[in-house]
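Researcher: Structure for this, please.
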Amino acid sequence: MVIASNTPATNPQAAGVIYVQGIPTAETRLTIGGSLHVSPMAIGTWAWGDRVWDYKPEMFDDIAATWDALQDSGINFFDTAEVYGRGESERIIGRLLKKAASQGKTPPVVATKFLPFPWRVRFPSSLLTALKASMERMGVDVIELYQIHGPTSLRSLEVLADALAEAVKLGLVKTVGVSNYSIDEMVRMHTALAKHGIQLASNQVEYSLLRRLPETTGLIAKCHELGVAVLAYSPLAMGRLTGKYTADNPPPSGRRFSDYPMTELAPLLAVMERIAKEHDVPMSAVALNYTICKGTIPLGGARNPEQALQNAKALGWRLSENEISELDGLSKVGGTGFWQHG
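Model: Predicted structure, token format:
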């Protein structure tokens, strides 16, 4: 196992090596939250069990094969949430973890998320109840990374921080993170957790060639300064950056993130296709490698072993500075919304 060594010198209190500066490989392990050793790329499991992605129960065998293929390729980090498929994604992961345990395999790192619905106002009980339900669905005694899904709670960030700290003190959670937080919100949560002696492990935000806002606002840089890993969700822009979709074959209407017309993306996709051919990798690997080069841990998606192997081709090489600059020039900044502050 190769441990990357690039924690910023300006942050001696950083919780670990949280991003790769050299070539990301299948053996590379980053350390987030001080204790989780994870691959430089993760897999988001929204599509595992959710109707948005046309999930059907008969797809489970493909997902199980995908789970094995990903770990065989060196990816040991999976992200889910209580709301993905109304808990079905967590239940699927629970079945996979149980199978792995029966085979004597080392389990991967699994993160999940708490959604701050407006009616969840009694803390820490609201969070602890949801946390225990997630643990039951996954069949685990501890959650390795527990994240606040969005900055929409009616209670203050400090109240949420106290609830997360309580979960850690009870031994139910190893590390804690947030999602969709702005710079100011992330700093406030970092400060509030620090009062409990707890490091904020991560901030999960939408980041891709079609939404570079976390980079242009300085959020990624601030996260690095504080030792907070940046988990980049939708790094493939819901399939728009894979080469699968065109102006004549657009993505399904429900795939709302980075919803640009495919005709508008043609120049970027043409450059991505050329770079992919030069490196002998699929276009999806170019998109994922780009986010790694920018100091994030991308959460790719895969529903079959072939997609798993395509994702894995983002490792073992690195875009050149000239290639990154060319892609930057054709990228999109994106914006914020009610749900996405970061």
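Researcher: Any notable elements?
Model: Confidence is low (pLDDT under 50) at residues 5-14. The first helix runs from residue 60 to 72.
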